[in-house]
Amino acid sequence: MQCFNIISVSQQGNELKKVLGAGFGIAVLVGGTIGVGILRTPGIIAGLINNYWLIVFAWLFVGGYVLLAAGLFAEMATMMPKAGGPYNYVKRAFGDYAGFLSGWFDYLLNSIAPAYFCIVIGEYLALLFPSLGGYETLMGLSFLILFMLFHLSGVKSGSIAQQITSVAKVLFFVALVVACFVVDTDTLPAEKVQTLTQNTTILGFLTALQLIMGAYNGWWSGCFFAEEDVDPSRNIPRSLFTGVIMVIIIYILLNMAFMHVIPPAALANSPLAASDVAGVVFGNSGSKLVMIIAIVSILSILNAYMMIPARIMFGLSRDNFFIRQGTHVNKGGTPVVSLLITTAFSFVLIIVGSFQQLFALAGFMSLVVTGLSFAAHIKLRRTEPNTPRPYKAWGYPVTPIIVILATAAMFIGFAKSDQFNFMIVAGIGVLSYPAFMLIRRA
User: Fold this and answer.
1) In the prediction, which pLDDT does 355 show?
2) Within-domain flag for 329
3) How far apart are CA 344 and CA 28, in angstroms?
4) Inter-residue contact 268 to 196 (CB < 8 Å)
5) Which of 301, 259, 275 is nearest to 120 (CA)?
6) Mean pLDDT per 10-residue run, the chain (442 residues)?
7) What is the number of structural domains in the chain?
8) Which residue segment(s) compose the domain that 60 sits in?
């Protein structure tokens, strides 16, 4: 009987519950953005940019891009506070097919995320506890099922967990920053100061920007939950801007802290820069500390990404872009059928995929979704100038044009460097129209 109650359908028209606030919005943005990227990419970026202040500028530059983009999303999310986020804006601006295409790209990239996060959790646990080696996939699958069962209990549980894990993550990173700045850098081993980089090139700088953009992915997470916010007009802009600014500050401070301990030339090409830095600061136990920080970070992200794709599928189902059962909501406010379908999809990806493959594919898809969303902002400003906008982004039309051009440039760069995943994205695009027509006729 208890199991039946968990998955029973809400008696109020399958409506999502308005129980979330700005605290959750900030937590899901910070928790859904800061993760393995900031622990792994600084060394690679130092190998591409051989200059302390240029590295800081690169992280700040992408942060500025994200801050501009957040203003556009804040305007559209408060104008259309609906579950599923970006695809709603594209649908309203360009029609059903564009909304269908954007929505399914968004669903796929956010359904891929739980798979590669579970894979990384399994890999890190095996590194932390060598006796678990060989069971990485099983551990990843176990975490996926565990989080699915947890989220069946309702949106409030997920909200509380997100806020707790996000606070823990921030505290861990703040402690690491402080420890780096108070360490005596004279303890740096001599072999660490060898110069491993060449002079910075334009291509290297552009490649670094792409990696940094990947670390910032997830900044629009709060928009998916606009329909469940008790006061979206007020809370969404606050949570987007507060969350993005927090992420920018943490990223800049972490890079400065890492380079305070190990100069860029010595940090260059390290596959896990944070581990090298922690080794200097904390000695032999440093690498284990970084693994613990990484696992906490990933758990926070996983919690967020177990919630997001279910909201996208709920919205798609409500708009007749998927089966109507996708709108079923249980008593706790969870889109239960959408959650189960998403878990099954991620389950298969964990078995057949790898972190690198899935992460790269998701990066392509995110550019499609955000690019269409930025274009939707311009279109809606032109076609619906008198529609109430509780929050209005500044700088129109310059701001959306800047972010559209930047997004297009990154997509072209990704297409040239990763033709395999580009062909997958192109193939999905080609198949999308027949799929759209088939669903519309059903």
Assistant:
1) 65
2) yes
3) 23
4) yes
5) 301
6) 37 74 93 82 85 92 93 96 93 96 92 86 87 91 95 90 90 90 62 45 76 85 93 95 96 93 84 80 80 86 92 94 91 93 93 73 84 96 94 92 90 80 90 91 72
7) 1
8) 18-437
Contact at 8 Å (CB) between 245 and 237?
Answer: no
| CATH number of domain containing 145 | 1.20.1740.10
Residue 9 covered by a domain: no
Q: Are 85 and 311 within 8 A, CB to CB?
A: yes
In a domain, residue 5? The reply is no
Q: Between the CA of residue 222 and those of 36, 186, 209, 278, 410, what are the distances in Å? A: 20, 43, 24, 32, 23
3-state helix/strand/coil string of the chain? CHHHHHHCCCCCCCCCCCCECHHHHHHHHHHHHCCHHHHHHHHHHHHHCCCHHHHHHHHHHHHHHHHHHHHHHHHHHHHCCCCCCHHHHHHHHHCHHHHHHHHHHHHHHHHHHHHHHHHHHHHHHHHHCHHHCCCHHHHHHHHHHHHHHHHCCCHHHHHHHHHHHHHHHHHHHHHHHHHHHHCCHHHCCHHHHCCCCCCCCHHHHHHHHHHHHHHHCCCCHHHHHHHHECCHHHHHHHHHHHHHHHHHHHHHHHHHHHHHHCCHHHHCCCCCHHHHHHHHHHHHHHHHHHHHHHHHHHHHHHHHHHHHHHHHHHHHHHCCCCCHHHHCECCCCCEHHHHHHHHHHHHHHHHHCCHHHHHHHHHHHHHHHHHHHHHHHHHHHHHCCCCCCCCCCCCCCHHHHHHHHHHHHHHHHHHHHCHHHHHHHHHHHHHHHHHHHHHHHC
Nearby residues of 320 by Cβ (< 8 Å), 6 or more positions away: 439, 440
The residues near 201 (Cβ < 8 Å, ≥ 6 apart) are none
Rounded CA-CA distance 72/400 in Å is 7
Whether 115 and 346 have beta carbons less than 8 Å apart is answered as yes
Quote the tokens at residue 267.
């940090």
Residue 3 lies in a domain: no
Q: How many CB atoms lie within 10 A of CB 384?
A: 13
CA pseudo-torsion sign 245, 250, 253, 254? negative
Task: Give ∠ CA 30-144-324 in degrees, rounded to 5.
Answer: 90
Q: Is 17 left (phi over 0), alpha (psi -120 to 50) or beta?
A: beta
- Select from 28, 17, 16, 19 the least CA-distant residue to 240: 28
- Dihedral, CA atoms, 94, 97, 99, 100, nearest 10 degrees? -170
Give the pLDDT of residue 12.
Answer: 47
